[in-house]
Amino acid sequence: MKYRKLIILAILFTGFALRIFTLIQISSTTFYNPVLMDKHDQKTFHLWAQSIIKHPVYVDGQAFYMAPLYPYFLAILYAISGGSVFFAGLIQGLLDTFVIFLIYLLGRKIKDEDTGIIAAFFYAFYQTVILYSITILSDGLIIFLNILLIFAIYRALETKRRSSWFFSGVILGFAALAKPTILAFIPFIIIGLWLWPESQLVVPLEKKTRLIHLVKALALGAIGCAMIMLPVTMRNLVVSGKFVLICTNGPVNWQIGNSSDSVGLFCYPKGSLLHPLEFDFWKLFFKKFLLFFNSYEWPQNLSIYIAREIIPALKFAFVRFGFIVSLGIVGIFLSARNRKNFLFVSFTIVQIMWVIMFFITDRYRFPAVACLTVTAGFLIKQSIDEIRARKFLRPAAWLILAGLWAYISGWEPGQSFADMYWRIFAKLSKANIVYNLQINNNDLAEKIAKDYEKLLPQDPDSHFFLACAYAQKGNMIDAEKELVKTLELKSDHHYAKKFLDEIRKIRPSN
Length: 510
What we know:
By secondary structure, the chain is mostly helical. It folds into 2 domains: 2-28 and 41-244 and 294-408, no CATH class; 415-506, Tetratricopeptide repeat domain (Serine Threonine Protein Phosphatase 5, Tetratricopeptide repeat, Alpha Horseshoe). Helices cover 69% and strands 0% of the residues. The chain is built from 22 helices and no strands. The longest helix has 31 residues, at 210-240. The termini are far apart.
């Protein structure tokens, strides 16, 4: 109906606006300049993209350590825009807006149009993905390619065109170059094709067996995938002399998440690697299972809890992981009753399991979140249908189960975990303030210093660096006040004492 089209257009427009306003506001925060983000993936990707522009094939002369597609994508955006980080964020925001539309289309395929609208709404307002989608990180591209892949497979099944299967393979190849773990879905593609209703089967070749149909479709997809992945494998072999399919960091990430002293999160371990036949391996696996479904957004490279305090646009994005996962998990079981949905359900489960097999971060959960928005929409629409049919018991049971799941998974980590990210924020703030003062970008330095002081008023350095920003702009009165506050919090702050003495020589106190 016409009003549904207006609703999805409104969701797309609002989702895009939220992403652009977030981009505009983050550009005046400490989380924006990738050059200053030491030990963060933002800086790694930024420098990598610049190396690609200089040497597109050779790069650093080593086999790719991380999946290479995003830095090449970023290099193209930099080449077009002259290295503009803002332009890259803008294009990524557009890409993530297209994900909203793909989720809407997937909801239609899994159940109906209302399911698609509900799912698109959830994703459009999902707070953490908005933040990551417009920053110099690969997650937005990974989500886009993953969701495009499952949509392309369903499209190929429905259109029965050979070109559609070839295109699905091409998308799989690109998705693997963005995140190789997607290759774990290949066995489920084979099973899903076998389970697909025979009346709607794959390729229109009459008088052929079902097996021939499947082999044809898989062969076309495999050719498309190989055409995309092979140049990267060949490049790795030529420059390094080693056979590396895509990248080499898989064993490192496995070590992080499966060592005897692993905590289940991103933390470099020192212990020995656990074996899957050991009890401790599965004990750690269960811990990671609980961490994955926990409602806390486990930060890596960005903390949504800090960012939303200094980026007002994020306050309008009210959807959180705990809400999506509680509805989405129940929705998985409901949608799995239709064998046409096997591909999507197995795709969702693979997106969950690969994270648990390695280690948990908020950004690694994003592809699973995108899928869970669809199954969450499925649950809500199914509940509405049941209620309209005056069947109240089942929807009540489903929603109670989802509520219990949300309640059980709603715990937060200890204060020491959160404190680590506040220390990172303080360090980034100092680096940004110094950098902007050095290039006479005094307004931005003052803005970042005020954010630092607002969020960490008990940190003496927050007042000291704000004093530096004030002084650079000639505001000696406020600079003196901030230096006094610094010394009230830390009486032996050497630089504050020296700076205050210099100011009072120039401007004697009344």
